[in-house]
Amino acid sequence: MAFKQNRSPLRVLADLSLFLCILLAPVCSATPATAPATLLQVKSGLTDPEGVLSGWSPETDVCSWHGITCLPGEVGIVTGLNLSGYGLSGVIPPAIGELISIESIDLSSNSLTGPIPAELGMLENLRTLLLFSNSLTGTVPPELGLLKNLEVLRIGDNRLHGEIPPHLGNCTELETLGLAYCELNGTIPAELGNLRRLQRLALDNNTLTGGIPDQLTGCASLRVLSVSDNMLQGNLPSFIGSFSNLQSLNLANNQFSGGIPAEIGNLSSLTYLSMLGNSLTGAIPEELNRLGQLQILDLSMNNISGKLSISTAQLKNLKYLVLSDNLLDGEIPQDLCAGDSSSLENLFLSGNNLGGGIEPLLNCSALQSIDVSNNSFTGAIPPSIDRLSGLINLGLHNNSFTDVLPPQIGNLSNLEILSLFHNGLTGEIPREIGRLQKLKLLFLYENQMSGAIPDELTNCTSLEQVDFFGNHFHGPIPERFGNLKNLAVLQLRQNDLSGPIPESLGECRSLQALALADNRLTGTLPESFGQLAELSVVTLYNNSFEGPLPESLFQLKNLTVINFSHNRFSGSLIPLLGSSSLTVLALTNNSFSGVIPAAVARSRNMVRLQLGGNRLAGAIPAELGNLTSLNMLDLSFNNLSGDIPAELSSCVQLTHLKLDGNNLTGSVPSWLGELRSLGELDLSSNTLTGGIPADLGNCSGLLKLSLGDNHLSGSIPPEIGRLTSLNVLNLNKNSLTGAIPPALRQCNKLYELRLSENALEGPIPPELGQLSELQVILDLSRNRLSGEIPASLGDLVKLERLNLSSNRLDGEIPSSLRQLTSLHLLNLSDNLLSGEVPAGLSSSFPAASFTGNDELCGDPLPQCSPSSTRRLPRTEVAVIVAGIAVVSAAVCVALMYTMLRVWSNWRAVSVSSSDGEESAHGGRDNKWGAAGAGDGKYWKVGSPVSSRAAEEKHSSGSETSVLHGKLTEASGAAKS
Amino acid sequence: MAARRAVALVALLALAAAAPARASNDEGDALYALRQRLKDPNGVLQSWDPTLVNPCTWFHVTCNQASRVERLDLGNSNISGSLGPELGRLVNLKYLELYRNNFDGEIPKELGKLKNLISLDLYANKLTGSIPKSLSKLSSLRFMRLNNNKLTGSIPRELAKLSNLKVIDLSNNDLCGTIPVDGPFSTFPLRSANTALLFSFENNSRLNGPELQGLVAYDSGC
């Protein structure tokens, strides 16, 4: 700290002495006596955890101090300071600038902080300055440009920022300039082109911009040019080809564009060339084949197109060829490895558009790694692949290879990785695979392979990951799978495997992920499972496992994901609750019984808890309220009883809450309105009572709200209209009263609206006509709705089903309903509608859509009587049937009271006799409920789906066949 | 520093081993691939977690009893981006509701693989290009609403094969040529007396009215 306060005066002093030194260089260098004092000052600024500076004391000869080198033969002339890699921290004191005779400073690989002192610029004898791999901050001091004798400057891997000072171009003796892994920005200074002796220039991992300056061509001695991981851009200059000594060129991970200059082929000494991760285009220049010394060529992750024009016939030293993630097309050239002289060990071509076969690779006899994944290769895996006896990694995945996996694969005794997934391979796994003693990874997933999994696979004892997902393997899981002691991942999902899980699987003590889902596996889980202490993910869904779970499972403390859905497991859940790290517990559709143990709530990070479709009973444990990360809580279709616990209000992250199909009682809690992430809320088919809380209107993200089939009463709160994202609203089968709130019009994303089987009254709000996306159904049937059908319903042009039956709707059917062009199911039956069925509707829908409206007439109902007036048909009929001749209006009025009494007594008789010819009358009770029985009756006439849908519902019902005939007839009529 | 040079290369070496056991279901993968190409400022696709067993708990996705995707409801969601071939993998899809968004690009021809599709609602977007002929393979299709886009080209004759078609709304595009007169199109003019059908072609300034077979080439004016 004291140092900091003195900094400014010191700096002035230093600058002054620098000036003096330049004038009086011989004098300055002749003052060695100051060196020990200066070095002790340096020491005082440093923290020295290893005590390497403990011997530095005024009592001893400075030349004997650790890390100090002196001029041989002279007394006390310090020429070298090397304290690299001693864990030193603290700052470099500016006093270091007083070590005027020093030629080499190495403080690299420590934990030094603070800036690089500008005073270093005074050390005119300095040839080597190594400060790399510290935590130095500030900028690169321009004063370093004063170091005329400097040959090596390596100050990278620090936290330096700012620009590269152009002054460095004055250090004309520089051979090595290392500024990589800092936070330098700006451009590469053109002045660096003055450094004619420069051999190594490393500027990697900064944020440099601009291009490679033309002046750099002056660095004619360059051997290593490395500027990777910057933001350099523009075309690659062709003068790069003039660096005749260049051995290593690394331009990776910049934004260079344009083509690869053919002149790079002139770099005859080049051993390393990387341009990966740029935006280079065009073809690979043929000239690259002239790089006879090249060992590593990496052009991956560019937009290079054209053919793969590389031949190791000339690139005799090439070991790594990396061209992945480009736009190369065509085939692998036959001469890629012509002759037997290829050195190619690693070939990476993944992510191109290459096709054809891989036979040309069989000549590359030195190959150890092949990755040709993510291309369009075809044909078989050549049986002679075993010529590549050194092969360790073989990646052929995501191609279109066909045919079988050849048995010769078993000869590749060094093979560790065999990745063949997502191809069109067929046939069985060859038994010879068991010879691959080094095989660690075997990915065969997403192929068309079949047969049994060979027992020999269990000889591959190095196996760590096995994935056969999405094939057609059948038969049992080999009994001896327990041999695979190193197995960490076993994925056999989506095959046709049958039989039980072998007891020996419990011996795979390294197993972390076990996925056996989507098979036909049976039996109970083996007791040995309890030994799989590493097991984290276990998915067994969609099988036929059964029985209670072994209690030993409780020992598995590392489980995070359990999905046993769609099996026949029974008994208690407790064995699954040994872990408190569960994030997913999915047991949907089993036969688990007992209560939901409160221990479920020990896994505080639970995200999904799905216990739907079991036989769980008792109350919902209040402890579930501790699961504050829970997204999905599905307890639907169990025998749960009691109230919805208030503690669940803490589960504020819930997106899905499904408690439907239980025996839950009490009310719909108003705190549900606080669950702002809720997208689906399904409480239907319980025995909930009370009203619908207005607070639900706060769940603004709600997409599906289903409260149907409960005992809810009161009116529909208008706040429901605030659920503007709602797609599905189902409140049917309750005891709701009052009017349908016009505010529902704001739910304009609704595609399904069901309010049927309640006691709703009043008119149908015309605003419902604004729900322009209503599509699946608008069901208001079985209520007490009155008034006329609003003409606006004709605006629901996407609506496919409209059910207004069994209400008290009167007036005429609005002709606007003809605009319901998407409608194919219409039920207006059992209302008080009158007048003539509008043309258009009459030709489109069967009589059943309109029956039960005494005063409705016209096709497809019986003809309207020509003499009848639409207003008084009921009186008219009554008069005729009673046989009373009406002579005068006065008599009529006088008789009215008596007549009405008579009429009301025999009305039922009259109606039933007039409807007698309608055969479908008896089905009235179940015409269009949620159960769907009898739906076909209201299908649109002539709709091809009408008959099909009806068949789906009642494949052998007599009603269907009647309907079928009727529809065919009607449709013929409509067409004519 | 020099030692770090090979880092990128080492990463590549690991590639073959890095591919993890892939998630299950093709439909989920297809939907996730779709998500990848979309901009979703309102976050309506936030729940689309590709690591789940199937997409049935994703919002705006509805599955049937067999856990196959039956509806995709992304209407009015302020989504932009293009539709991709991956949609063709949702082979159980009945309702594709992508209306009133900012989808651009062309209608993927792969939609023709959706044999169960009943409703194709792409209206009110910014779709360009022509109506793919492959849509004629949508044998279950009843509702095709492509109106209010920027579609060009002629109406493919092949659409006349869609015998179940009840609604076709191609209005407010930039289509050209003539309107087919076969199959379901035979009920032209626009709104037939049998109100069951809606065939709308309005506001396509280069569309020339019904095809007069043998007299006017169907692509006249294109």
UniProtKB/TrEMBL annotation, chain A:
Please state where this protein is localized. Answer: Cell envelope; Membrane
> Which of UniProt's keywords are assigned here?
Glycoprotein, Leucine-rich repeat, Membrane, Repeat, Signal, Transmembrane, Transmembrane helix
What superkingdom does the record give? Eukaryota
Where does it mainly reside?
Answer: other
Recorded GO CC terms: membrane
Q: Is Transport there in the keyword field?
A: no
Q: Leucine-rich repeat-containing N-terminal plant-type domain: which residues?
A: 37-70
- Keyword presence, Transmembrane helix: yes
Using the UniProt annotation, give all residue ranges assigned to the region (Disordered): 913-976
Q: Where are the transmembrane segments?
A: 877-897
Q: Secretion signal: which residues?
A: 1-30
**Which InterPro entries does this one have?**
Leu-rich_rpt, Leu-rich_rpt_typical-subtyp, LRR_dom_sf, LRR_N_plant-typ, LRR_R13L4/SHOC2-like, PGIP
Q: How does it sit in the membrane?
A: Single-pass membrane protein
Q: Disease resistance R13L4/SHOC-2-like LRR domain: from which residue to which, for each copy?
A: 383-493
Q: Where is the composition biased (Basic and acidic residues)?
A: 918-927
What does the sequence similarity comment in the record state about its family?
Belongs to the polygalacturonase-inhibiting protein family.
Question: What protein does this entry describe?
Answer: Leucine-rich repeat-containing N-terminal plant-type domain-containing protein
The species this protein belongs to is: Digitaria exilis
UniProtKB/TrEMBL annotation, chain B:
Q: Which UniProt keywords apply?
A: Leucine-rich repeat, Repeat, Signal
Record's superkingdom?
Eukaryota
Q: Does the keyword Signal apply?
A: yes
Q: Where are the transmembrane segments?
A: none
Q: Which Pfam families did the record assign? A: LRR_14 (PF23598), LRRNT_2 (PF08263)
Q: Which residues form the signal peptide?
A: 1-23
Q: Where in the numbering of this chain does the Leucine-rich repeat-containing N-terminal plant-type domain appear?
A: 24-64
User: Where does the record place the Disease resistance R13L4/SHOC-2-like LRR domain?
Assistant: 72-171
- State the name under which the record lists this protein: Leucine-rich repeat-containing N-terminal plant-type domain-containing protein
Q: Can you name the source organism?
A: Digitaria exilis
